Amino acid sequence: MEFHTVNKIQKQALKRSASDFTRLGFALFFMIGVLTYSFLSNGGVSNNLFLAVAALIGAYMAMNIGANDVANNVGPAVGSKALTLTTAIIIAATFEAAGALIAGGEVVKTIKNGIIDISAFQGDTNQFIWAMMAALLAAALWLNFATMMRAPVSTTHSIVGAVMGAGIAAAGFNIVDWGTMGSIAASWVISPVLGGIIAALFLFAIKKSIVFKEDKVQAAKTYVPIFVAIMSLAFVTYLILKGIKRIWPNILEFLNTLPMISLEVTKKPTFAVALTAGFIVAIFVYILVKKRINSSTTVLENTKDSVNTLFTIPLIFSAALLSFAHGANDVANAIGPLAAINDAVVNGGVTSDASIPLWVMGVGALGISLGLALYGPKLIKTVGSEITDLDQIRAFSIAMAASLTVILASQLGLPVSSTHIAIGGVFGVGFLREWLHIKDEKNRTIEEDILTIEDERLNKDAYEYELKELLDKSEKLQNDYVRIAELYKLIENEKKIIKSTKKSIKKAKKIQYVRRDAVKKIVAAWLITVPAAAILAGLLFFTIKGIMI
Fold this sequence. Notes:
The chain is mainly alpha-helical. It has helices at 2-41, 48-68, 71-79, 85-103, 125-148, 155-171, 178-211, 216-243, 248-256, 271-294, 304-308, 312-347, 358-386, 392-412, 418-472, 478-506, 516-548; strands at 108-109, 353-354.
């Protein structure tokens, strides 16, 4: 029996090792391919070896973004069973790559968000290249570690911290824009709190308007089209503002070729334009969803599970659109420093802006998709099922928070992190479930415990009456003394029960719907992301500098 068990464990270990080696093989093949292509295609450029190594690190960084950050887009949909893990990976990988290639190639500031002042390098191209290479590698290593620990962290914060650390190592503390760093620190609180509040509000609204109703079918027919239309409004606005900025002028030029349309071509969409487009789409979506729910082909039961199925298709669209917007925005985290190094090597100088060649964009797009496919499932499971249990309604509320929070924060000028928003949304729905349970538990406990107190008081009165009679008895037998002692104990016991029951009325037993160990681990990872990436980048800069000098 023991031999059979050991043999079974060995087979499982070998199978897992083979799977790990296969993933590692694909990852190494991709990175070596990028290294080779970069080296051969830039053979006539001095320092092309630096560029080739930077391209390899950029590929490594892109895969780590795919493994860690993309989980926030599809994790809730997978956890709620709206999508299988395989389907989610295919959808996310496709739309991440599409977002990066179609809408992610705008001019990228090499020093992300103005974290450091590049004039402090005083035109020293080598120092700049070493700093950017150290920043890129440090951010990638930190993301790799966070993924191993199953902690979803902000890739933007990782690269920002790394650029800051490498900049300090290269030119001192004065190089850092501490005002920007303060905004980033503020986003640690603002992002999860806003995301959690908005997700909880939407979940509570859905529960009050549909789930808590006696006739859930009729309530669903009334309110589900409204909620899905609001989601369409939010996602279209979000996608226009954050996902297609680069190709916005091209879209307007195309529309101007249509009859009776004459639009002013602007560099990027305004909030009013994005919101108007969102309203138009929302109206069509409302009509479509209303028609589908009211059709005879849609059979609904008067249960929460039946209502949940109505949110499955919106969740699939949300996973795709969030992935597209993420690819368009966060690809810069992987290839921004790489584009800076490419510009410095090819042009022999240090500039604040650098256009991204197509091959560099391809490294980011393919790397994110490959990293998601190879190493994304761990974080997808963490976000989808290891923090709190999700169903379609809860996942829908999280998706709503992901889009609405970014829109709200961008209009208020608040710094936010999409990763922290999504995880904050997961926390929000989990803690709302706890609050609702506690509220119901208290109501139930009060009713039951009031009856218990009344029964115990009756018993106590009966024991006290019997005790008084025995004590007043002029001649007591031995059995009477035994009974008196018993009655004293019974009365004392009844007092304890009454006291304990009163306490339980004041404080109902709390069941935790959010796993506290997961919350602590994730929050700790958030807090140390910037300093950890900065320290690592500084050490790597001095290492690279020591090797090169």
